[in-house]
Design goal:
This is PsbP C-terminal domain-containing protein. InterPro entries: Mog1/PsbP_a/b/a-sand (IPR016123), PsbP_C (IPR002683). By secondary structure, the protein is an alpha+beta fold. Helices cover 30% and strands 23% of the residues. The N terminus is likely disordered.
Amino acid sequence: MISTMCSSSSCLAWDIYLPKHNRNQNRRIRNEFVQSSFNPAETSDNDRADQERLSSGVLKRRSLVLQSGVAPLVTSLTALGFPAPGSAVVKQGPLAGRVPGLSEPNEEGWRTYQRPDEKSGGHGVGWSPIIPYLFKVPGDWDEVPVSIADLGGTEIDLRFASPKQGRLFVVVAPVRRFADELGDNTTIEEIGTPEKVISAFGPEVIGENVEGRVLSTNVAEHSGRRYYQFELEPPHIFITATAAGNRLYLFCVTGSGLQWKRHYQDLKQIAESFRVV
């Protein structure tokens, strides 16, 4: 359902940083992305309709960006460069700026990812270091490199993917990007109500207005921090939002129609496991 785009600059970056013995495999995977943006065998008519709608949304939002000169938080899911459902996942190696943070599997086979303190990225001038966050994923999920060519810019802090179950990404953005009066210890409540937050930031994730797409809204609290949890359709996506320090965190979990049907409970559990620590 989700189309995958690979710009020449991001593809070049992969070839530069990957070890020589992996470059041929990388080029092969990249060619598969270009030749087929989704797996027809696992894609329904509704999935194809969602794909066309999202692709149209990308073009419209790109036009607005060019006219305004202001880049959105995340242009849309189709601009995030995720592997297509059924495609191979490039496992994260010890690349510069990326430090592994996955635990060993527990008894159920799930692993916990915690953002390492040493991980670079997102430390702009005038902004505090990113407060670590964590989440849980089944054993076959792995980190996918984030390219500097992403349309979402440096605010996309992390990506993970599973060839069977779906994809996720984490957006970390300065809160003063949205309101000057927000301070260095902002809470999600200060940014707004759940309805205000999803109306403001949902379109930045899916590329379209979220009106009529929010299936459920929940407010959870863990260790004194409040989290807004949303389920949207179409496209199929869970979004967990919170704030810490002077940053807004958006944790987004998505999948194709078939992945959503088969692995809904696991995807929901991943989305609800997100914590800022």
